[in-house]
Amino acid sequence: MVARKTVCLKRLGQDRKGELRVGRFFASTKVTAAKIIAGWSTLTGAACTGRHVLAIDDTCEVKFPTTAQRRRGLGPVGKGNIYGLLVHSMIAVDAASGACLGLVGGQIWTRDGVNPIPHRERPLEDRESMRWLDAAAQAKRVLKPAAMVTVVDDRESDIYAKWASVPQAGFHMLTRVMKDRRLTGGGMLFAAAAAFPVAGKRAITLPARDPGKPKRTAVVELRYGEVEICRPQHEDRSLPKTVRLRVVEVREIDPPAGVEPLHWRLLTTHEIADTPAAWQIIGWYQLRWVIEQMHRVMKSQGLQLEDSQLTTAERLEKLAAVAVKAACIDIQLTQERDGKHQLPGSTVFTEPETDTIEALVPALEGSTDRQRNPHPAQSLARASWVIARLGGWNCYYKPPGPITFRRGMEAFYQIHRGRTLRMISEQDVRIP
Question: Where in the chain is the domain with CATH 3.90.350.10?
Answer without folding.
Answer: 40-308
